[in-house]
Amino acid sequence: MIMLRSAFVFIGLLSVTLCAHAQDAPHYELHFDAQTQMLAVHLCLLQAHAKVEFAADAETEMHYLHDLQRSSDNGVEAGASAWSAEHWRPGECLSYNADLGAIASANEQDVGWHLGENLVTAPQLWLLRPDVQGNADAALRIALPAGWSISAPWHEQPAPPAVAALGKSVLFSIPNTPANWSAAVAIGHFDEERIELPGGVLRLTILHGADAEQRTKLRDWLAHVSRAVLSAYGRLPLADVQVLMIPVGQLGLASRAVAAVAPHAVHFGQSIRGQGNALELLVDPSRSAAEFDDDWVAVHELSHLMHPYLGDRGSWLAEGLATYYQNILRARAGLLTPAQAWDRLQEGFSRGEAQQGAGTLEQAAADMHRSHAFQRIYWSGAAYWLTVDRDLRHASGGKLSMELALSRFRDCCLPSYRQWQPEDFVAKLDGLLGVQTFSQRYREFSTMQQFPDWKKLYTELGIRIDGKRLTLDAAAVDAAAREAITAARPTPAAESR
Ligand SMILES: [Zn+2]
Q: Cβ of 88: how many Cβ atoms within 10 Å?
């Protein structure tokens, strides 16, 4: 036993030594100039390298970066999509200026926006990555002018007192995520508010276009609906999440027109995973608190934090989880009655069933951005999770559930900064409960050519619909599972400061 352990220690040391040269974590120092809207970047590497390539994660737009130079006298060569530097010395730095103002002026998703005096930019466009970084996370420090703040998906680190005394300077570590994952960094005049919850914090920034009263309403709403997400397993799925709320009407004429034609509290939401985890919500601050509470988008996006990125092929599984939970978790938190939750699921299943498409569910999901079979994909996925949740409760007499598997998944595997194959995700959930339900149902659903038989499932759960009337039958075979699925959970109140 002891021999075995020392062998493992030896192998462990060896692998660290072998990796040391392949992974050179970059250190970034950033200074933002509010007048010119230029960001001066110094990127330093500790080790010597024969050659280093520096590229932005986004392939385009090398022209946003200017004045590249090295701290040694050696040169830096511009290529088609990257810069290269030979004979790199230990501790050497590359410096350049990034034109954040120009990036924000694009007013385009995944590039940037100007929102009043605030600049939102995709860091993939201006944070050059050295090819010697390997899997290491980067460290970054930014100095901001007085009155300016930053909101980023990166993880803030406690600043040493000496650094804090020098003025507004923030330290971060940057999770190493795939290059094509979206991210947004906001710099401007705002206060990032921390909504502290069991298991983590939501860092909320409301960007321009909401008055003080509306800001309070939006913050209270997020704190309120995040209780619904806690009703899954009592904790936020991730320790640290950036939340950007963008008031509708700030993104140009088109969004103002949409807001006028189709009034909603929440117009759009997305969960993005580049360089950390973030939610973006496009909101109409003029709508009432009751309309915000009635909206499902925030709970849907927060539910996406519970699973890793599953790729296009696994999008039905990911969207299904969020679509199922947007109704079920809101019932648990008292934002819907159980009957309302089952009714909304039923309406979704009916819409999904009406949208027939060619091919299997997996093929439709892999091709979603061309086929636009969103209803079929989202609601087939929701039927998968309802089926699995019912199966687990049924077979275990209520001891097992999908939230127990997801809670254990949080402990073993989140945050996850890489893509998972959907088969690996369901196999992991099975392993965490010692069952095969997730994988068996996965194989069944992913190959379905038709919409799943949700009416049979509803009959077994004791949910009857006569015309517009929905009744719940306590004598049905899976009535106990149905009641347990929507039963209220005790959830601690959110605190914000
Ligand atoms: Zn979604």
A: 21
